[in-house]
Amino acid sequence: MKYFRREVVGKELTLYPLVCMHVGAPQADEDFIREHVARIKDDPTGAWVYLGDGGECVTKSSKGELYTQRLSPDEQIDRIVELLEPVSGRGLFGIAGNHDRRIAKLSGLDWTNALCVRLGIPYLGNAAFARFVFTPKANSAMRVGFETFWHHGIDSSSLLGGKANAARKLEQLVWADALFSAHSHVCLDMPPSYVAYLPQNADEIKYREVRNFVCGCAYDSRVPGYAEEKGYAPILPAWLSVRLALHGNHNSVFEREMTCRVWRKPC
User: Fold this and answer.
1) The three-state (H, E, C) secondary structure of 222-241, written as one string
2) Helix or strand or coil: residue 15?
3) In the prediction, which pLDDT does 117 show?
4) Which of 47, 117, 161, 179 is most buried, judged by most C-beta within 10 A?
């Protein structure tokens, strides 16, 4: 598990997790990806995180159909870099997905590391903490932070409740203001959890809010393939963005806010 820190001068940052693109699969919706990339490009506060499964990365020993894969794993990297070129320089870091790891299991070469090098972002492995530290006013000594945790996600059932429960399991592993995961392909802004804690040098019990975001996919499972074979309910492409913001400046006291927006492909 690794740690990432980003200094933000100002009061707002919008995070765009890019996950489960499955480029190279017939189900990969590249038009949806391009539309979302354009959205990030037009957002002056926008920054993206690679959260795994950018490529289909089917091998002879993995799930999926090797001969329906439209691009080799190497060509999948080329295509992802091409798709994200308009927001080059806006990426923060990358996390490995289960499809990414197929290549490492087969060959010992880390496909995600190679992708992150091409994208010009640090590769943080399987999971990472990321702290976003805001300086609300230029040349101010004041700092306000958001603590976040990033993981590609945990295996779940085909049912929505099972997918949500799998994401909730990460809350038993770490504490953070917000947890970001995926893997299940659904896009969810789940109801917050509340964690009691006792502040240092204080006798009053406080509560912290924990937000949990399941970040969706750019994979259209209506296209015939593995999901149809297994009898899974179709999932359409959907991604989310999360805006971190500070409000107020009376006596240098700022209130933190997290706002989620979901971007779905029309049916």
Assistant:
1) CCCCHHHHHCCCCCCCEEEE
2) strand
3) 98
4) 179
* Contact (Cβ atoms closer than 8 angstroms) between residue 257 and residue 245: yes
Give DSSP secondary structure letters for 36-94.
HHHHHHT-TTEEEEE-S--B----TTSSS-GGG--S-HHHHHHHHHHHHGGGTT-EEEE
Tokens of 163: 């997918």
10 Å CB burial of residue 231 (0-12, 13-18, 19+) is: exposed
pLDDT at 250 (0 to 100):
53
pLDDT at residue 147 is higher than 80: yes
| Token pair belonging to 97 | 């997905």
The values of phi and psi at residue 163, to 5°, are -65, -45
Cα dihedral across residues 188, 192, 193, 195: positive or negative? positive
Q: How many domains does the chain have?
A: 1
User: What CATH number is given to the structural domain containing 153?
Assistant: 3.60.21
- pLDDT, tens digit, for every residue of 81-133? 999 999 999 999 999 999 998 888 888 889 999 999 999 999 999 999 999 99
Residue with token string 């779940």? 156
**By residue range, what is the domain housing residue 133?**
2-264
